[in-house]
């Protein structure tokens, strides 16, 4: 997501970085390019115009921080403005203070509503809630079956709606059923149409009145760009939405909808859908998204995922070892296991600051390689894992034989391990300074 925009902005900033000082002329030229990049990413015209004008005012004003170079200052301002335009802070779900809450999902057909209902169910359960899914789309019988199947797959309770029931009656009966089953959060998957139409809106209004949901979220397809923003505007006028979920952000959506939706509709983007799998739902954080667009990497998401995968005590021991340059092959293997728990290597690399998106695209990571590496390290003796330097030709042969690999494979592994060691040593020497060198600007 946002690859083109990121690449375009990256080249603008590189040019700005080339100037020792910034003046009105080079800022103007840089911002013209930023504006073009935003329009190309399908950002709403007015939103792009306003944000550029705000950036310009700040860049030309006296907001100069001595610790930053002129190029860095502009990036910082752009980052701040992008964050602001997307709503500044993450807007969490507000399910009220009572014993139960409910989320009504609305949107056009094919936007990803039913999938999102399943994803939200999973998300809510992870948050410690007990969700109850309610299929309300009686016009497309397949939609009811689809949600029931999702429920079975995710082991989430689903209300037993039938196509002959009236939507409002389904919702009311579902509330009772949820209470009886001890569920505290209802997720209503309402009917969608191919286009906006008055009958649908009127029905949704009736449902809203009858159900009083804590949240009413529009599910919209990011791939439709500005259409998604317009749809959000129309639904909001009739239903006064509490937020938006943009799906299919993993595709080649240019991202304009995510950047414009808050500024145009005033309603926050609460989640983004990033895949067909039910785990592909992420709470939307304006600051993280801005840093991702600007190629600063999704460092915070990375840290969060790392925290989920890494045991705190383990992390402390590892840090100590790294500081003492005592990172053995055994640690190398354990770390690899932890990294793999966090997701695919490509995903993880994409979150790191300074990762070149193009390089990443061309990178072919064979996850099977990891299995090989693990097998090789397992075939070593404890002494070999501690002191890799003793692994000479005959030991290499034995290790290769034991792990069902070749001597070349063993050599390759030792090389990447020694390279990691070198990086760690360099890092320990340079401390914060070397960290700064790793930053993308
Ligand atoms: P509904 O008609 O609004 O209920 O839409 P569905 O939930 O049936 O989704 C329509 C299609 O979009 C399905 O093929 C989903 O797998 C797909 N889909 C939904 N959300 C996402 C997403 O975040 N990313 C991707 N790539 N596909 C999605």
From TrEMBL:
Residues annotated as binding GTP: 107-114, 189-193, 247-250
Main enzyme class: hydrolase
SMART domains (alphabetical): AAA, SRP54, SRP54_N
GO cellular component: signal recognition particle
Coiled coil: none
A single BP term in Gene Ontology: SRP-dependent cotranslational protein targeting to membrane
Reactions performed catalytically: GTP + H2O = GDP + phosphate + H(+)
GO molecular function, one term: GTP binding
Entry EC no(s): 3.6.5.4
InterPro entries recorded: AAA+_ATPase (IPR003593), P-loop_NTPase (IPR027417), Signal_recog_part_SRP54_M_sf (IPR036891), Signal_recog_particl_SRP54_hlx (IPR013822), Signal_recog_particle_SRP54_M (IPR004125), SRP (IPR004780), SRP54 (IPR022941), SRP54_GTPase_dom (IPR000897)
Keywords: Cytoplasm, GTP-binding, Hydrolase, Nucleotide-binding, Ribonucleoprotein, RNA-binding, Signal recognition particle
Domain named SRP54-type proteins GTP-binding: residues: 268-281
Described purpose of this protein according to its UniProt entry: Involved in targeting and insertion of nascent membrane proteins into the cytoplasmic membrane. Binds to the hydrophobic signal sequence of the ribosome-nascent chain (RNC) as it emerges from the ribosomes. The SRP-RNC complex is then targeted to the cytoplasmic membrane where it interacts with the SRP receptor FtsY.
Subunit composition and interactions: Part of the signal recognition particle protein translocation system, which is composed of SRP and FtsY.
Similarity comment text for this entry: Belongs to the GTP-binding SRP family. SRP54 subfamily.
Designated name of the protein: Signal recognition particle protein
GN (gene name): ffh
